[in-house]
Design goal:
Elements lengths: L2 H37 L21 E5 L12 H11 L6 E6 L7 H21 L7 E5 L22 H6 L5 E7 L3
Parallel strand pairs: 2-3
Antiparallel strand pairs: 1-4, 2-4
């Protein structure tokens, strides 16, 4: 057999194998498509989900403590106000209520004024953090509503020299800030 004939037969065999391969692949594709069509049976649409009611926004409050006979914010208390200022950004609210308190040591009139100054110190700090001054209401309650209750009773004289009593009454020297939402 001549070499040219061999090459022709070889080319013919390759073409026949190629055509058989194309038909075989085509047949597999058709079978896969038929199996997929069986597997993909129509599914009934899901009923629309009931809308999720919005969560009520969490209450925003802060309580900051003050040193005895002082209305200047303590350095360790300012992060609480920073966090409060960050929480109210973008929220809808009527106003912030800042209420100052004092301990029971000293004259009632003096403590009332001191508690008002403490609330105003908190107000000034929050204004410095970008809160609208017109939306902050500062008020002083003096010795009213102590949180220490009976815990500091019978601790000796009620004066500025009684350090043990002053330490015990620390939680009463505070400003409580609360976000008030209009209803």
């Amino acid at each position: 057999m001549k070499p040219l004939t061999r090459w022709a037969i070889l080319a013919l065999v390759v073409v026949v194998i190629g055509i058989a391969l194309v038909f075989w692949i085509q047949r597999n594709r058709q079978q896969a498509a038929a199996e997929k069509a069986v597997a993909e049976q129509p599914v009934a649409p899901k009923p629309p989900e009931a809308p999720i009611p919005p969560k009520p926004e969490e209450p925003v409050t802060a309580s900051v403590l003050f040193d005895f006979d002082r209305s200047v914010l303590r350095l360790g208390e300012t992060p609480k106000l920073d966090e409060l200022a960050a929480k109210i950004k973008g929220r809808t609210f009527d106003h912030l209520q800042a209420v100052g308190y004092a301990d029971r040591i000293g004259k009632e009139a003096y403590n009332l004024q001191l508690s008002k100054l403490r609330a105003e110190a908190v107000q000034a700090y929050l204004v410095g953090k970008g809160v609208d001054a017109g939306r902050i209401r500062a008020d002083g309650k003096g010795e009213a509503q102590p949180v220490t209750g009976e815990a500091c009773k019978n601790m000796g004289p009620e004066n500025r020299r009684n350090r043990k009593l002053i330490q015990c009454l620390q939680p009463d020297r505070r400003v409580e800030v609360e976000l008030v939402v209009a209803r």
